[in-house]
Design a protein that fits this description.
Among the domains are: about 50 residues, no CATH class; about 130 residues, no CATH class; about 140 residues, no CATH class. About 70% of the residues lie in helices and about 5% in strands. It contains 20 helices and 4 strands. The protein starts with 6 loop residues before the first helix and ends with a helix.
């Protein structure tokens, strides 16, 4: 470009120059290079105001919107071009890379030239014109030589930087626009054997396409990051643990600030997956809580409690869960469980009721634990069940009978499907033996098996009965000491009578 070229035209891209020419009907059909477009429009005396008016007419008005529109237009234009196989042969590419490496190691310096120019100027001030002329001529000679080296160095630097961006975009997206690859190959060819004019043209095209692709990538990625942060806020509203995806987003932000495209893209994808996993884990936990709440209701009703809330509210919670309204589902489930627990607590204030339920829960925990441990010994996956047993036992030991009761009932319901596979394993291993010529009293089929402990079970319908009348031993200590008949009679006597009775017992011993 000459010094007389209008700056408002020189700073425009080719696409924008075409739009200005089309607006004012300037013939640019014969123009091949950017400078040709600029010269033609300058000859038509297109002012800066006219150029801005042409760019704004019928399109975006803001600078950012204009750049975005240009990027899209360039991408569409590149996509329409036939693919020219813009990749250098491997041997030629290696040779170019070696040349680029050598050039980058020899970075030109203009310090010596600046020093000579300063010396020439000092001679000029001191009226030593002859020395000023000689020194300045020497500086100009060296400048021409250094400028040629600088052009080569600058070209090598831009090619290497553009190639690094192209590689990063390929790693992040899995593909790179063929137009950018073609521009990169052309710039490399011009670097090796192109004239200065061709080298500069190919370099400008490569820098323009690469910069726009880079900006477009970060524009889309930043939008995706913003959407992910909004999703995390929504997930937190119903109790989702979002520490891990947030941690990954912070690291991704650092990668973005350091312009590490591939690392930023990878971390952003990892954050998305972590957020999805966290949401899945939370929704699974909410869905599992339906069974616990239902068990809490059944335990309270089994003791004769009348609940203020019930099946209608539970159905409403299910509808909310199915419609992705997780916060409402949690609130409904919490209110139902709280109401059931309060009613349960009122019932077990009666010592007899509490004692009976304590003994029942204790026996069920021991039985479930024994059954699940047996299933685990056969290689069955019952780790979740054993974890529930541990929670129920811990609640029981801590005298939280309400929690122990509902967890135990919930575990019984969840573990019911494993009994079919467990019975199959028992039969295969000889633990259970078939009772020959015996029919089930319920379904009438000859599918009765004898299990340890003199227990008979029909593997067809599940009917179970014991051959003995001995009660099952309870290995867990009840929450309260059983109330015996003698204790009840003692409670009806006076203190004096009780003391006399105690002394008679001691004497009888």
């Amino acid at each position: 470009m000459t010094d007389g070229t209008p700056r408002h035209l020189e700073n425009l891209t080719v696409n924008r120059l075409k739009r200005v020419a089309q607006r004012y009907k300037v013939d640019v059909s014969a123009c091949k290079q950017k400078k040709d477009f600029v010269s033609r429009l300058a000859a038509a005396e297109i002012t800066e105001a006219q150029a801005l008016e042409a760019l704004q007419a019928g399109g975006p008005t803001h600078k950012g919107e204009l750049e975005t529109a240009d990027i899209r237009r360039d991408v569409e234009e590149i996509a329409d071009k036939p693919y020219k196989g813009g990749v250098l042969p491997s041997q030629e590419d290696e040779e170019v890379e070696r040349n680029i490496d050598r050039v980058l190691l020899a970075r030109p310096s203009f310090f010596e030239i600046d020093s000579r120019v300063e010396t020439a100027w000092n001679h000029m001030i001191m009226a030593d014109y002859h020395e000023a002329l000689r020194t300045n001529a020497d500086a100009r000679s060296k400048m021409l030589d250094r400028f040629s080296s600088f052009q080569i160095f600058s070209c090598a630097l831009s090619i290497r930087a553009a190639e690094s961006i192209v590689t990063s975009l390929g790693d992040a997206r899995g593909r790179v626009d063929p137009g950018i690859k073609t521009a990169l190959a052309e710039a490399k060819r011009a670097f090796v054997d192109g004239n200065p004019k061709h080298r500069e043209q190919t370099l400008e095209e490569l820098e323009r396409l690469t910069s726009k692709a880079y900006a477009a990538f970060f524009e889309g990625s930043t939008q995706a990051e913003t959407e992910l942060r909004t999703l995390l806020s929504d997930y937190e509203s119903f109790g989702t643990q979002t520490q891990e995806p947030k941690r990954l987003l912070e690291i991704a932000e650092q990668a973005r600030q350091s312009f590490n495209v591939a690392e930023y893209s990878r971390l952003l994808e990892d954050a998305k997956q972590a957020a999805t996993s966290a949401k899945t884990a939370r929704t699974t936990a909410i869905e599992d809580s339906f069974g616990i709440v239902r068990s809490a209701m059944h335990e309270a009703r089994e003791l004769g409690a009348v609940l203020a809330v019930g099946d209608a509210e539970l159905a409403a919670a299910r509808d909310a869960f199915d419609n992705q309204a997780f916060k409402r589902a949690i609130d409904l489930l919490s209110s139902i469980e709280s109401a059931a627990d309060r009613a349960h607590l009122e019932k077990i204030k009666d010592a007899d009721v509490r004692q009976r339920q304590s003994a029942k829960v204790s026996e069920e925990i021991v039985g479930l634990e024994r059954t699940l441990q047996e299933a685990a010994s056969y290689g069955m996956d019952v780790q979740d069940g054993l974890l529930f047993v541990s929670k129920a036992r811990s609640a029981f030991v801590n005298r939280d009978l309400i929690t122990a009761a509902k967890l135990t009932r919930h575990l019984k319901e969840k573990s019911a499907p494993i009994h079919v596979e467990l019975d199959k394993q028992r039969i295969e291993r000889g633990v259970a033996k078939k009772v020959e010529e015996a029919r089930c009293g319920k379904c009438g089929k000859e599918t009765l098996y004898s299990f340890p402990g003199d227990v008979r079970k029909c593997v067809e319908c599940g009917h179970t009965f014991s051959m003995t009348v001995q009660p099952r031993p309870v290995t867990m200590t009840p929450l309260e000491k059983p109330v015996t008949s003698s204790d009840r009679n003692d409670s009806k006597t006076s203190p004096a009578e009780a003391e006399a009775t105690r002394r008679r017992r001691l004497l009888s011993r």
